[in-house]
Design brief:
By secondary structure, the protein is an all-alpha fold. It has 2 domains: 2-253, no CATH class; 258-317, no CATH class. Helix content is 72%, strand content 0%. It has helices spanning 2-8, 20-34, 54-66, 70-95, 98-109, 112-117, 124-142, 148-163, 169-181, 185-213, 215-230, 244-252, 256-272, 278-290, 297-314. Helix 10 (185-213) packs across helix 11 (215-230) and helix 14 (278-290) runs antiparallel to helix 15. It is globular and about 55 Å long. The chain starts with a helix and ends with a helix. The relative contact order is 0.07.
């Protein structure tokens, strides 16, 4: 209940922020007023082609159910924020104990930006929820629940329908995972089947918009808001250096470096040292990092050999 109150406190009283929040709410309000669910419009009647429609559809349904208000505009993001927290805990539970999974949820709450954006009428938290849920379904399918590959593909498609190319993160992550882990053929077959279902979720709206708006859709949606955002020529990060996101992350939470290091250790252990306990894998990882420093090559080789020998001894006692 405390977590729910954290996400919902003041969401009805605060006005929407002037740009993204209010603009997205206006687009959803126009859906209610015009009855145009496939063609989204700005206040001035100009076609809104910047983003996919899923969040605007859901926001419009909330407007029709609860009335047009700041509360209704924010409800979907609030639900997605709580859902993301639960999905992170369930994903952590697959690898760790329940207390550790609760700590994973607590670590997420240590980022003030997370619950701040969970109370805003923006696309960031909904797409984060769908990405996390898609990755959760993917890992549960690896545990033998092969039917969840279908839900993995559906949530992946819904993530793309929420924030375009950003929703492809689970596809890239799962493809790299399968490439590195080389699981049995049934797992790969289920993943490919899920990928074959994704176009049925993503393509209909995109094809309709292309047919209806022609080159304007391609120019606004793909060239302007996908390609130019990827190249850094548009948006808040325009003109910023390549390490822009790292500086933003450090400002959001001063402990980000420890989180990044922990992720690196876990990934290296999963790929290269999955038979070793985590502390030992961390030692091997540290030894590998040393090899990139300007030290004598023989010293590095001796260090590696010593750590590997120590690993063999310690791992028997874990």
């Amino acid at each position: 209940m405390g977590v729910v109150s954290l996400f919902t406190s003041g969401i009805a009283a605060r006005p929407l922020d002037a740009f993204d929040d209010a603009s997205y709410a206006d687009v959803a309000k126009n859906v209610v007023k015009t009855g145009e669910w496939l063609n989204l419009y700005w206040l001035n009647g100009f076609p809104f082609l910047e983003k996919p429609p899923l969040q605007f559809w859901i926001m419009a349904l909330l407007f029709k159910s609860f009335g047009i208000s700041e509360l209704s505009a924010r409800l979907f993001s609030v639900f997605c924020g709580i859902g993301t927290l639960l999905a992170v805990m369930l994903l952590a539970r697959r690898f760790l104990s329940w207390p550790a999974s609760c700590l994973a949820g607590l670590a997420l709450l240590c980022f003030p930006a997370f619950y701040e954006y969970s109370s805003r009428a923006m696309l960031d938290i909904p797409v984060t929820f769908l990405i996390t849920l898609s990755i959760l379904f993917f890992h549960q399918a690896l545990d033998g629940k092969r039917h969840l590959h279908l839900f993995y593909g559906i949530t992946l498609g819904l993530a793309v329908l929420t924030k375009s190319i950003v929703g492809l993160v689970p596809f890239i992550a799962s493809a790299l995972f399968l490439l590195l882990k080389r699981p049995d053929k049934d797992v790969v077959k289920g993943w490919l089947l899920a990928m074959s279902r994704r176009p049925f979720v993503v393509l209909p709206w995109h094809l309709y918009e292309w047919i209806h708006h022609g080159d304007l859709f391609l120019r606004e949606y793909f060239l302007y808001h996908v390609i130019q955002r990827m190249t850094g020529d548009l948006g808040y990060h325009s003109g910023k250096p390549a390490w822009f996101y790292l500086t933003e992350l450090s400002q959001a939470n001063p402990f980000w470096i420890f989180i990044v290091l922990a992720i690196a250790v876990v990934l290296i252990r999963a790929v290269c040292y999955r038979d070793l306990p985590l502390p030992v894998a961390a030692g091997v990882d540290g030894c590998h990092l040393c090899s990139y420093q300007r030290v004598h090559r023989k010293a590095v080789l001796v260090c590696r050999a010593a750590v590997r020998a120590l690993c063999a001894v310690i791992s028997r006692h874990f």
